[in-house]
Automatic annotation (TrEMBL):
The protein's name in its UniProt record: Ycf2 N-terminal domain-containing protein
Entry GO MF terms: ATP binding
Alphabetic keyword roster: ATP-binding, Membrane, Nucleotide-binding, Plastid, Transmembrane, Transmembrane helix
Transmembrane regions: 55-77
Keyword Transmembrane helix: yes
Ycf2 N-terminal domain: residues covered: 6-124
Similarity section: Belongs to the Ycf2 family.
Function statement: Probable ATPase of unknown function. Its presence in a non-photosynthetic plant (Epifagus virginiana) and experiments in tobacco indicate that it has an essential function which is probably not related to photosynthesis.
UniProt source species: Brassica oleracea (Wild cabbage)
Amino acid sequence: MANSSEKLCLPQRNLISEISSKSLHNLLLSEEMIHRNNESSLISTHLRSPNVREVLYSILFLLLVAGYIVRTHLLFVSRAYSELQTEFEKIKSLMIPSYMIELRKLLDRYPTSEQNSFWLKNLF
């Protein structure tokens, strides 16, 4: 009798252990899902708070202002560069030997004062 009752208990034990393992597995899965949902809801409510939005909008505004300032300075630098380039082209044309000879003749004919002639002395 003990033997037959053990045989009857064995399938019941297997069934009980199978049910308990499935229940434990489902419990762990549901806990994980609850944890994930709580995290995402915390994140979304955290991002929805007015202070965080104000900070994000402030950062965006500062980035826009910084971009505008950089753009303005780049335009200023490019204009100054083009003006300097045209000035250097003018000076370069004066450095042609025939022009240098003509300039020397003019300087000999019309001498300049000492204050203004410093850059002309360095030119020759």
